[in-house]
Amino acid sequence: MPVVLREARDTLVPDMDGPQGPLPPVLLALTVVTGLVDAFSYLLLGHVFVANMTGNVVFMGFALAGAPGFSTFASGVALASFAAGALAGGVTVHLARAHRGRQLLHALSLQTAFVIAALVVTLISGAPYTGGVRFALIVLLGVGLGVQNAAALALGVPDLTTTVLTRTLTGAVSDSTLARGPGSRAGRRVLSAAAMLTGAFAGALGALHVHPALPLVIAVVLLAGAITAVGLLSRGDAPWTRPSAGR
């Protein structure tokens, strides 16, 4: 079997007794969630991301230059909300530092609460989401995704940050044997990019052609599934539940 396919298989169907256990497929699901919520926020909340903060910094530059359709204030609110979520997520995971299963479970529970709150707001208010509703959604989703990213950072699973793909894709090429590198882990890295693409595609398709709230509905379903899986699999003290050596 080609190395790339073997790496992809091992990411999707990992060794449950290995150092990462079930974390890779769970983090791939969270990467899909990132694509879903960013599709919702960018398309329906006015050119703002709630997960990919690099984009918001760029958007602030566009807005400052007078480019139409971009808001310095909206991007700033998203950045501040994400930072608040990262702080809350950091506190959450550090309270369970000795057990990565509990770290992820607690963080997912907190994140899901914020995404569900955002879903309720979308269903009650109805589209288009403007004024206070728009900013309430930016805050709720920004905080939720900040929590997710804090958890992913604490878990320390290589190439599965759930948000940042630039470094992941760079590594897939620059570490390849073609570039005389040590090996690119391209299977896992390509899956990470594919998960983000899948979430963005499904989110855009649902928001534009089915119902504006559909991306958040799918996100909540994925989060609920992740909570259930992690809750069941983290009851013991398997090797993967121990703190990452790099943290």
From TrEMBL:
Keywords: Membrane, Transmembrane, Transmembrane helix
Residues of the signal peptide: none
One of the Pfam families matching this protein, by short name: DUF1275
Transmembrane parts of this sequence: 26-44, 49-67, 73-96, 108-129, 135-157, 190-208, 214-233
InterPro entries with a match to the protein in the record: DUF1275 (IPR010699)
PANTHER family: DUF1275 DOMAIN-CONTAINING PROTEIN
Name used for this protein in its record: DUF1275 domain-containing protein
Organism for this UniProt entry: Streptomyces pratensis (strain ATCC 33331 / IAF-45CD)
